[in-house]
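Incident review: delayed structure delivery

Summary: a single-chain prediction request sat in the queue longer than the usual turnaround. Root cause was a stuck worker, restarted by the on-call engineer. No data loss occurred. The affected request and its eventual output are reproduced below so the record is complete for anyone auditing the incident later.

Affected input:
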Amino acid sequence: MKRIVLAAAGVLVVSSGVLQAAPWKKSVDANLTMTQNAYSDNWSGGELGSISWVFNSNSLFERQLSPKLNTRNTLKLFFGQTHSQTEDTKKWARPFKSTDRIDFETVFRFTLGGFFDPFASGRIESQCLDQRDRTNERFINPVLFTESFGVAKVLAKSGKREWTARLGGAFRQYLDRDILDAASGARWTETTSDGGILFVSDFLSPLADTTMTITSRLSVYEAFFYSESKKLEGQYNMDYWKSPDINWETIVTANINKYLMVNLYVQFLYDKEVDLAGRFKEALALGITYKLK
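Output delivered after worker restart:
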């Protein structure tokens, strides 16, 4: 299905007349924050030296390829680590992650002038470093692929403020490499797939003035079929995969001056297969920034 969507999008790009394309609209908010502390060997109180750093990047590239075709590409990159001394030896231990995310999505929206616009999209979600098994750390693992198609609507647009919504069918594929069975020591690769309906709402707007920006996304996905449903029959969680998955994330970026910024990231997740309650994440950072307009 993924190959069909990508091939169809490629054909439509060519047939719609790319030579008529408008300039790219580019927006990149990237920032790096760091915290460091150190103590002499005879320092009393039990404090330990540590270094923490976090890189955040939120990018948007949009272009009207032709009067009837728009492409919108978003990329979120987060990665951070904390290094600290051990309490007994004061030696520096191996770093552990504080944040890690890769999220890339491309959306083709067919601007035909109707009340709704048809769309087709592809999304890849992963992380830079999988440290669940410290004896076998893996890069770009696990990976979730999502292909969706349906109808989209621009609910509001004024200057740099834009609010869009999409509703349609979706297919997902999940890949997790080299999973360790603690009992036998064997490793295997897990692959699952499902399909259902997906709703996505994207909101982007300046706040107060151009020095502050809010980016918010709400996605709700409900599966209608699941490749592992037969294996779950008779278990207490056999129907958990049917519950909607909710992901609501908001990024607020405020520039103090040209090179200093404050970044607030808030995320709420609900996935019944992972936890019966919702999960919450908040990260507040102050550091140096680079902004492309």
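Verification: The chain has one helix and 14 strands.
Action items: add queue-age alerting; document worker restart procedure.
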